[in-house]
Amino acid sequence: MTAVLKPTLARCLWTAPAFAALAILITVAARSIFGMSPVLQESTLLTVAYIAGGIGFIVGIGGFDYWWTWMRGGELDPNDHSQHGAHSWGDYFKFNTDHKVIGIQYIVFTFVMFLVGGMFAEVFRSELAKPGQQVLTDQQYNGLISQHGVIMIFVFMVPVFAGIGNYVIPLMIGAADMAFPRLNAVSFWLLPVAAFTLLSSFMFGSFDGGWTGYPTLSEQSGYGMTLYQLGIQLAGASSIATAVNFLVTIIAMRAPGMTLFRMPLLVWANLATSALVVAATPFIAGAQFMAMFDREMGTHFFTVAGNGDTLVYQHIFWFYSHPAVYIMILPGFGIISEVIATHARKPVFGYRAVAFSSAGIAILGFAVWAHHMFASGMEPWLRVPIMLSTLLIAIPTGIKIFSWLGTMWGGVLRMTTANLFAIGFIFTFVIGGLSGVMLAVVPFDVSITNSYFIVAHFHYVLFGGSIMTIYAGFYHWFPKVTGRMYNEILGRWHFWLTFIFSNLVFFPMHYQGLLGMPRRVADYAPEFAWSNTLISIAAFILGASTLIFVYNMIHSARHGKTGGANPWRGLTLEWMLSSPPPIFNFPTTPRVIGGPYRYGEEGAKHAIVPEVEPATVETTV
Amino acid sequence: MSAATDHPAPQIQPYRTGLRPETLGLIIFLVSEVALFGAFFMYYANLRILNGIVWPGDFDIPADSTSINTLILVLSSFTCEFALLSLERRKNGAVFGWLFATFMLGAVFLGLQVHEYMIVGFTPQDESTGTIFFTLTGLHGTHVFIGLVLLLFGMIRALTGRWSPERHSGLLGISIYWHFVDIVWVVLFTVVYCLPSS
Amino acid sequence: MKVLPLVLLGVVVGAVISVLLIVLRTLPVQASAEADDIDNLYIFFLGFSGIIFGIVVLFLLVAVYRFRARPNDEREGDNIHGITWLEVVWTVIPFVIVMLCAIGGLIVLRSGDVEAQARTSGQQIHVLGYQFGWKYDYLNQEINLREQSTLVLPVNESVIFELTSADVIHSFWVPAWRMQMNATPGQTNEVSITPTKIGTYEIICAFLCGVGHTGMNSALPDSIIPKVQVVSKADFDAWVAKQKDDAAKAASSAAADSAAGSVD
Ligand code: HEA
Ligand code: HEA
Ligand code: CUA
Ligand SMILES: [Cu+2]
Predict the structure, then answer these.
(1) C209: Cβ below 6 Å to ligand 3?
(2) What ipTM was reported for this prediction?
(3) Deepest in the core among A47, A325, B69, C195, taking most CB within 10 A?
């Protein structure tokens, strides 16, 4: 009985519907008072129900309990840790303020979403396996690819890095937790709301405008499109909140002695990424607000009838979504730096250059958005500057690639699965990057834009790039998180299957695009028949290989060999703690005494964790 | 706290001093607010540069009465600052008073803004210019409203005596937010109301 | 550690990859004056991409082979934190390559623009995209084709397309011309091309435009979208004459109809 009053998922079961019902009542009342007709406008009511239901869910899970005390003027206890840390597996389903718990919640949830998004890919790949239309209608096909793109990007790729960062960053910088633990938890719990909003659009015909949702097509779609616009905003709000949290944590909570240039490169990468998120994400919120108002309130941002300008949507959308692709790769670059240095037993080659190149990519990333619009009929003078800035991005990225090669050169490479994924990442990412450079050149881009060449490019950077880094990170920190080792043999199988079959899936797509196969089509010319069959078969095997990974993780977390505190003999701070780390991380404040990658130096240390707490550090108010 | 913890919970506090984390976080958050307004200003600039602004139905927006409104909002920034000054002098009653004054000024501003909506002669559904006028001012109005709610909490906490010169990052946050809303309005007023429509 | 020979080897391996890629490149026929430039650009990309890829992969493989740890090998790597001159080199060389790309792109872009500006004659065609098809108006021939008619063009004569859309964004893509441009509602986008080969070519709508997007592709076996026809000048003139004739007939019969109607 009390379970429905305490902050639990059980409480959500009534708070979310209650909030939604209340909002509907208020709206109906307001509409009848102001004489709006029809009073029962279905789409408006659904929209307010979704928004209020989402808030109700966060209230139910306990996201506002603490702030409620603040609001009503109550006394707050900054040392109230009652919601901190997991003592049983049930705690992972609760509102928890421990960054390690939140990190795991993020990772598990987003990975499930990856499987769901991948499942969609498998479904539409089975449609594409043969010419002609067998499995899906056009409508369903468009809905599935859109869901695939949106789920992969907004509820898998962006947040999974937030999850890894959540777990690792406070440990790496020697902090007890994130700067705002409750905000952190709220950011996580927004994600299921966003995912529910997006996925439930299947009940309303889904959204079918691609992951980009351009008007004026989006004005024609059914109610599902509004849910796309809402869902993206929710996911965006979540990632902004996390980014603010990361920034403050990294700026203010580094352990004594951890200067900027003693920070591990993962922390640097997340610093740059979070700055991007904070400055760029509101633009997509803006674009979606506008498109949603057009649909739901009859405004004229993008309608032709009201002198709106559809091109502006594309500008604002890509002003976020280009930086977003770097949001989806920069933290991965950070992971690769950690993994390669640790497993090659060698300091990162050119630490500063690698650190600064993240910042360079982040800054340049704001100046290249219009390379997605070369064929859109935008202002012609914009083409050349955008082409130049886009090309320049290859340089900081190249610095990273070469520095990783330099790190491996002369090291003692431990070919663990984590390291295999890091090496495989370099191989595939370079292919994707090089095709990106080709696309940056305007005349070439307009000859093949919106074809499968683009699909090939971005799966090479997203699958061959980001996903590989994520797997590398999962394997690298698995012993830290669980205290047990994963099964190397299964890991190797997983790597080789993923590596071989992802190339088989995505490489032929370049040629399909060049030969004239447009993207987002459910059927194609007969000449593409055999290549599509090959791709689909490879895609099924690729999907199945994920199950090896899932099995390995679940099985090893319970039955794996124990790994000890530091199986990789890493030097960064997280390896100085037990595995899994204690609930409040460091028993005493660590002191950082050197760089994070002092491999090959006799007895070198990155930091020490003193036995006795030194006199408490004074904080100014 | 549970007994299962291996060592006592440290206070989760920054090692680096200077700005309090709440304040730093708020300032970073405001960057993203700037970006959100930026999206709408971008749309507005695009219209203005491409077509010049002609408000729907040749109506004009009432710049004069709105300049009075602008003054009201600017004034409220000062009253808000006075609340913080009073806190430093430990005058708790005055803190409440100034916050209340700020709240009232903000409320008057919102009221006048709604009044303007009723007399302006076009609606958000009239052409893209009408749309962007209402959404820009409406987005700002929403922020004023949120500011008012925050001020309300500030007043409640002043009444329950939770603010002290030593612990008032919440109040500081409210005031920073309020100043931000004010600055956005000044920019908005300049580019939307003051630049002559063509 | 001799690195320079390896770099050279990398270049060689890379060059082999480049040559392979270039030989194996499969592209649609070149049917426009612009296509050749663009294909050359692509060959240039394949050239340097193969070499960069070759070097990176060679170093990866050699590193894995030479520096892998043996079982129970607890050695540490060399404590090297960077070599400044090397880092400068690998910043400068990509910069040069990238600038070459930019220059190549600019040249192709510029020659297209210059041609477009110098153009005095040629066909000017207004293309209207709609769900789901195209409609063409020959502005300088005063021919307005019906929806879903065939686009017929004279060979070796430049064409300016003015694209717009009646509903949602479509994109007018003719892979054989290496040309694509969006048809966006509320605006007119211009693009020009000179067909150089007589024949029929696919027109593909490349932009997701709703449930009929898949079908807006003349390459599908049962497509109702007609392909483009590029014909000789004489054939084109004959076609134009016929269209005008048809239009005149249709107009007079319509006039007759309405005249008949008014008598009633
Ligand atoms: C993780 C995601 C990610 C990343 C990292 C990138 C990286 C890059 N992308 Fe990509 N891109 C996407 C995700 C990503 N992209 C997505 C999702 C789309 C499609 C969206 C849609 O329409 O649905 C897209 C589309 C896209 C387009 C638009 C195509 C079109 O629609 O017509 C362009 C055009 O310029 C482009 C360019 C680039 C470039 C230049 C890079 C560069 O950053 C790459 C830099 C890396 C390298 C170059 C390799 C390593 C460097 C070296 C080894 C040094 C030596 C190299 C040289 C000298 C060249 N991308
Ligand atoms: C992170 C990003 C990401 C990832 C990882 C992927 C992964 C894959 N993608 Fe996709 N893709 C996009 C992002 C991504 N994609 C985007 C943004 C678009 C553009 C959308 C648009 O046009 O708007 C796109 C579009 C896109 C297309 C083009 C559609 C079209 O234009 O018509 C294709 C075609 O083949 C494709 C295929 C695949 C395949 C085969 C995988 C495979 O890697 C998937 C592998 C499969 C799995 C990993 C799932 C395994 C699942 C199981 C084994 C069962 C699990 C059990 C349960 C669910 C309980 N994707
Ligand atoms: Cu028309 Cu796609
Ligand atoms: Cu981009």
Answers:
(1) yes
(2) 0.92
(3) C195
